[in-house]
Amino acid sequence: MPSLRKRKVLLASKVVALVAAATASPALAGPNEDTFFEAGYTMCDAHMLQLAYDDDLMNRVMRNAAEKLRRGDGARVAADVERGRQMNRYEARRCPADEVYSAEQILLFAKYWRMDSISETRAKLSGNLVRGDHKNSLEAINDAR
């Protein structure tokens, strides 16, 4: 087992990597993405829609969902996301926590749940995303502040 110092260095390097990933420019930007995210959906939800729509092109998936949202057909989008979750069998690998949460948010979530392992924290956040518990995760993060 690594010494305490080595574990702290490893944890610090992971935090630096998370911060770097969180501050990178977003791959998606535009009115369709804005509509999708402003409706409360996450990148995980977009991945679930990819499954539901059987479409690998994220921009097209976001455009289709945004068009439905703008038409007032939010129930259809919610049903499609749920269908994608079922097709995914609630597997968390499609939803990395760092696609949705900043490094600070991940650390605050760990603090709230008194978790020592960043990888365990990220796995719990990813699982929450797949189950549609994003709001509960955000509440825990805000409570930790």
Low-confidence stretches: 15-26
**Beta-strand content:** under 5%
Q: What sequence of helices (H) and strands (E) makes up the elements?
A: HHHHHHHH
Using the alpha-carbon principal axes, give the shape: globular
Rg, alpha carbons: 17 Å
Gap between N and C termini, in Å?
Answer: 32 Å
Number of strands: 0
Helical stretch count? 8
Mean pLDDT: 85
**Given the helix and strand composition, which structural class is it?**
mainly alpha
Helicity, as a percent range: over 70%
What composes the largest sheet? none
Any chance you could write out the topology, listing elements then pairs?
Elements: H1 4-23, H2 31-38, H3 43-53, H4 58-70, H5 74-88, H6 103-112, H7 118-131, H8 134-144
Describe the structure.
- By secondary structure, this protein is mainly α.
- The protein is 70% helix and 0% strand.
- It is built from 8 helices and no strands.
Could you write a compact summary of the structure shown?
The protein has eight helices and no strands. By secondary structure, it is mostly helical.
